[in-house]
Amino acid sequence: MKKLKITYNAPVTLGIVAVSLVATVLGLVTGGAVLEALFMTYRSPIYYPTTWLRAFTHIFGHADLSHYAGNMSYILLLGPMLEEKYSSKTLAGVVAVTAVATSLVNFIIFPHSALCGASGVVFAFILLSSFTGFREGEIPVTFILVAVFFIGQQVFEGIAVRDNISNTAHIVGGIIGGALGYAFNKKPG
Fold this sequence. Notes:
Layout lengths: L10 H19 L3 H6 L10 H9 L7 H22 L1 H22 L9 H11 L11 H20 L6 H19 L4
Helix pairs in contact: 1-4, 3-5, 4-5, 4-6, 5-8, 6-8, 7-8
């Protein structure tokens, strides 16, 4: 009988989960001080180095353990498949682009709102994963349905529901995931 071993199969995915856990716990232990200082993006002078740092790191902070668990469940479900298909380096790029884009949109459109959490990344992963069976010259029905259900729900909730959830970050993440999924799978020429 062959001996089973545990493998570190998805470094970007597992890194996001680990750093997010540390950031979230530090945020909880400090009453939100660490979260606000390092893991939340909000309007601050663009010449502050922490403004640009938080443009990336806000995806690691979560309001509470429930928020953390919800986002990490999707990231753990989709991340390893995406890392295997596109590479860890490419997926890290998707995460970075999504983090900065959601931060900039929040910075410009919602100057009086703070943003934290990996929801934009989750939506990027969801739309990106719908391209796993993509063939040149075709648009997968799964992509269309995922876009309609997930993005449509966010647009509806953004208009009809008043809560502390950034539907805009979800929409921006979904657009990035869909666009990159198409670009990554389109054959050159």
